[in-house]
Amino acid sequence: DVPKIPDSRGDSDGPRRGSLCDRHCAAINNVQGDLGDLGCHLHRPRVPPATSTPGCCQQHSEEVCESCVVKTTLTAENAVEANKLSNNYKFGFKKWKSHVTARPWEDRSEIVKELYSDLNVVRGSGGSTLTCGNVLYLLLFGWWLLLLYVLVAAVMFITIIGAPYGRLCWDLAGYFLWPFGKVIQKVEVRVPWESLWGVLGVPYAPLDLSPLPQVPKSHQVREAGAGESSALLGGPTPRRWRPQWAGTGYWHRAGTAVWLCLAYPVLALAHGLVCVTAWLLIVLIPVAKLSARATSRVLLLPPERVLIRRLRMTEVPLEGEVILCCYHAANPYYYKYSVDGINVFAVNLLPLVLVTLVLGYADSPNHLTGSAVKFTLALLSIMPLSYYIGMAIASISAQSNFAVGAVVNATFGSITELTFYITALIKGSREGNRCYAEVVKSALTGTLVGCVLFVPGLCMVIGGIRHQEQRFNSRSAGVSSALLFLSVGGVFAPTLFSKVYGKLVCGECHNVTQNPLGHYLCHNCHFDLMDNNGTLYYSHVQPLVYTVSILLPAAYLIGLFFTLKTHTHIYDIHISDCHMPGHHHSAVVHWSRWRALVILLLSTLCMSACADLATEHISPILTNSTISQYFIGVTVLAMVPELPEIVNGIQFALQNNLSLSIEIGNCIAVQVCMLQIPILVLFTIFYPTNFTLVFSDLHVYASMFSVVLMNYIFMDGKCDYFQGTVLVMVYFILLAVYFFAPSPSGC
């Protein structure tokens, strides 16, 4: 982080507005004006001058100059990834950790390469096969696959003509009991065809005794995706002979027909069950690959061409194609596995969305399941849909210009939360139940408090496990903090106004001292805004709400213009190409713009349907649950849609990029106050609901205390796991307060 001489291009944006140190350090670091125009550049090393830093620090304080010369340098494989990285540092844009383009294979680590490799690689030393994952495979799948194959082998022996397949099933029974350290090969084996055909009553065909061409080593072992090959354990190999019917007459044999009709469907169904179960468990994905490859390759080969043997250190395998070779059933790094750029967790949760929609709309009378199950399924379905929406937004923004990215982020950035809030308000208005409006207010407050305390606190704790102290850009965090102070003050201004001028009304009061002039104990007290035919509300509170709903989005736009146009240098981001000259890689995007747009629209529609089901079946939970409705809204309804964002923040923190982890929480909190709440107020104008911008005292105190504490923690631009623990503990204390709080009036 040494000051650098500006290159010949100079500063295209001219002199910066701000302090003298800002302008001087911007010239030193050659900060680019608009990160959206950055491509994928390879920057030449620059020699720092000897007089730049002392000159700056003589005129200004050491602390200011230290903050302005620190610069974040990021690397990107291509222009699309560079655009995505720069979008992460733009205020108002969704922060996305995963790649939107396919990474070059040579840049992947050996651990990741192993995740995507086929199970046909023979290693000289695979290590011990007695591991916890292999024992787990034996307990879950191995023993009953053994029994199934023994049973199928007995059936095939009984059919006589299926005896070769019976022998194959007998060998596979021992293999699938413990497949580790064993190899299945496709070989050309000489068999006593004359004696075998005599037993089976089939005319013997003469053999072609010409030797087979030697199999090239490049075809012996393949590693999926890498395009690389490695030979087996070399050495002399015996000659193999091939019958005349091999390859063409196999499918016409009677034994094959019996095998395909009787045995193969049963075994394919069993392996399919193993494959699905192992895939859902994620760490057992190697077992899923094993079952899939056995079903598609091994069970469709002639039995005489399948060779099963155990590998030993001093043994040379027979020449031939390796079909299966597995050493370990479990790999804990499969949480990194992705399919077409989609994380395996999001892939596994996608069928849950289909189950939720079918079960929710096909079983309306609740004959199959109750409302609690449907509500839980609908809430869980929101998580993968939020992931798909986030990736679609990041893909479109990375492949488009700044204007398109800004429009997409502003339109769909808060679509998950708004969909649920609006459907809940509509249902509450139709039923005349004020409880739905209170739940929406609790969810809004829970999102605000969770993103201010829990998200950055959890990221600090997890990131602090790997890094002793983490630094972040205090200036960019200060912009978000200032907007957050403004937004919280604006949102709760109508509430404070009603406390000052409203009339306190209590539902039940008891005289404690038995004296008419003594003390009274009152319950269910609230400030009535509808006194005197609602003069206070309609003449004073409601105009204030509309005024605040106009000023907050305007302040949000000013913040966007400040951070994205006039003061982009406060983010001091430098993006460079991580490849050496001569190793340029073209961008291979996972989702094209049109594909991402289609997925974005479909995910939004499914999100609306799941939100409708959640609000449809939340009523029994609110009425029959002993837990406060405040707690349900603050925890479950507020934080479940934000789980993908929390995961992104944790991943950024583990890479020592705490600035983005903090910005994730701050941006969500700012969007709640400056976009989501004004949109809900605007919605109530066209569709009258019970939603009013007057919150309970608990919401006001919790939100303001959280914002003040967050700004105090982020004051010095550095943090550790202890400060993160403080934020998390305060968040749990507030959750305990909501848990023991009585239900709001009207619920």
TrEMBL record:
Domain Sodium/calcium exchanger membrane region: 373-493, 596-738
Molecular functions per Gene Ontology: calcium:proton antiporter activity
Topological category with respect to the lipid bilayer: Multi-pass membrane protein
Spans traversing the lipid bilayer: 135-161, 257-287, 342-362, 368-390, 402-423, 443-465, 477-497, 544-564, 596-615, 627-647, 668-687, 693-714, 721-741
Keyword tags: Antiport, Calcium, Calcium transport, Ion transport, Membrane, Phosphoprotein, Transmembrane, Transmembrane helix, Transport
Top-level taxon in the UniProt lineage: Eukaryota
One BP annotation, GO: intracellular calcium ion homeostasis
A GO-annotated cellular component: vacuolar membrane
Keyword check for Ribonucleoprotein: no
InterPro entries referenced in this protein's UniProt entry, alphabetically: CaH_exchang (IPR004713), NaCa_Exmemb (IPR004837), NCX_ion-bd_dom_sf (IPR044880), YccF (IPR005185)
Family matches, as PANTHER family: VACUOLAR CALCIUM ION TRANSPORTER, VNX1 PROTEIN
Protein name as it appears in the record: VNX1 protein
Organism of provenance: Pteruthius melanotis
Gene (name only): Vnx1
